[in-house]
Amino acid sequence: AQELKQKRATYLFDVTAATTDTQNLTVRFDGLKRVFIGERETERKNTAYQLSFNLVAGRLYLNAFTEVKPR
Question: What is the pLDDT averaged over residues 12-29?
Answer without folding.
Answer: 97
